[in-house]
Design a protein that fits this description.
The protein is mainly beta. 4% of the residues lie in helices and 29% in strands. It is built from one helix and nine strands. The strands form three sheets. The protein has a four-stranded antiparallel β-sheet with strand order 3-8-5-6, with no helix packed on it. A three-stranded antiparallel β-sheet has the order 7-4-9, with no helix packed on it. Strand 5 and strand 6 form a beta hairpin. The protein is globular.
Amino acid sequence: MLYDRELLEERRFSPAIELRQDSVLDILVENMGRVNFGPYMELQQKGIAHCVQVNGHIRSGWQQYTLPLDNTERIDFSKDYIENTPAFYRFFFEVDEPGDTFLDFAGWGKGCAFLNGFHLGRFWEIGPQKRLYIPAPLLRRGKNEIILFETEGRAAGSIVLRDEPDIG
């Protein structure tokens, strides 16, 4: 499926925001869209490579850190919800008999999903895939946990498991 270039270009810039003198600005740069072949593979960079301007003035002194997602047990869910910001969401559900299923992302924006600590994959509202496959062996009898990291500030508030795929 080909995507509308204007839609993808629109997602590159940040809209103008108002900041007070004592404001703290957090910028999340996701690790997506890397070339995985050819001569440019070793030359790729993610993050703030040069400068950031606020009201035409260059700002420096950034504190940069990684957000490793290799251990979902270390995620702190005690923080307050802030609307329209990236966030982690946790859901629990019970399984009587494990079977293949699909995690539906209707109402969610963009991010990645984990089931019982296993990374299921990434999702994005523009598709083409609308559901992630959950093989039966990843499900446990009894209590299961799904964690979503949603980067666009679009949260449906619930998740839905379906019995068939939706690949667009």
